[in-house]
Structures are given as C-alpha cells and as structure tokens.
Amino acid sequence: MIATPDRTPLPRSFFDRPVLEVAPDLLGRILVRTTPDGPIALRLTEVEAYDGENDPGSHAYRGRTPRNSVMFGPPGHVYVYFTYGMWHCMNLVCGPDGRAGAVLLRAGEIVEGVELARKRRISARNDKELAKGPARLATALGVDRALNGTDACARDETPLRMLTGTPAPTDQVRNGPRTGVSGEGGNGDTHPWRYWIANDPTVSPYRAHVPRRRSS
C-alpha cells in the first residue's frame, strides 16, 4: 500500500541550509502550481545543485546581477530564468540570505492536474514525459519569468508552493555530474551535483557538455 504524501508546506528553515544538503532532500517532495484553471502537483524526481559564487556552473559565479538577484535570498523563493531564447527553467533558492545558492528542478512526475499539463505539453508522447527535463517541467506547470521571486513558503495564497510529500529513501537517491554544464576552469561539469531517484521513468537522460565550435 502506497502512503499518502504529506501535504504540509515545507518551512523556510528547510531551504535555509547549504544547497548540497537541500538538493537531495527535495526528491520526493511535492510542488503545487496554482492556476486559474486549477492546481497542478508535481513530485520531484531529479534536481541539480548550484553553489553560487563557489560554482563555475552557477549564474551567480561572477556575483550579483539584476538577472540573478533572487538567487541571493531569502531562501525558499523561486528563481526563474529564460534560456536559448525560448525556454524557462525553475530553481528554488537555498542557503542563508545574502549568499547565492539554488536548486534547479530538472524533472518530476505530474501527480495532480495531468490534463492541464497535457494541454501545455502537447508534444509529450506519454505522461512520463510531461515534466522530463527542466524546460518541459516549467512548461507543464506554466512557469515563466512572471513568477521569478515567488515565495514558495508563503503562508498566504501563492502560485507556487513546496509541500513535504514523501521524501525519497536514501538508498534510492543517486548522484552524478550535472547535465550539459561546463563552467570556467572546466570544473562545472565534474561536480557530482545532479541528484535523482533511481529507476524512476520521469528522470531525464544525462547529456555531457559539448563545447561550441567557433567557425573559422
């Protein structure tokens, strides 16, 4: 018999920890996206940690900018960025206020509001692909830059909220290099800071970073 996930909101103290502690602990947690058409709930199955100014792969590696300012806190807020001129990706800010850190939400299983997610992800071949990858996850949930800075721990109504869910058993948590990350000095791709639930069909495939070739 499968236990019913805990629907208690995660407290801010959950995120006010080092990003490498928070990232694996997010697996199995539930993210709820409230929309005018109804709620969509997602069980997290894959994430990546980005350790701010200590991390060549992080947007905050060179310090605070207007784009990445949300990454510097407070913890528990949502950092959304736009990439490749077409996709949004969603992160949860971690660590003490004033120090950049965030966890990229890479993949998950839609456990509520599947029909709403299907309308946004009409190219998905099946429900396992609805949020299989960070851009697909954001698209399925209807997340864009308008939600950047949202407090996922707010007590009042909020469009994005993290719930306790059912944490993944530690023996089912795997980690390895982050997907497609390079970073200054060649260090970004070697950090084993991608975490996922073993054998879960919603986890995205790993792809190593491929340097762009400059035309002669």
Automatic annotation (TrEMBL):
Q: What is its EC number?
A: 3.2.2.-
Q: Name one Pfam family in it.
A: Pur_DNA_glyco
Q: Where is this region: Disordered?
A: 161-196
Q: Is Acetylation included in the keywords of this UniProt record?
A: no
Keyword rRNA processing in record: no
UniProt keyword list: DNA damage, DNA repair, Glycosidase, Hydrolase
Q: What is this protein called?
A: Putative 3-methyladenine DNA glycosylase
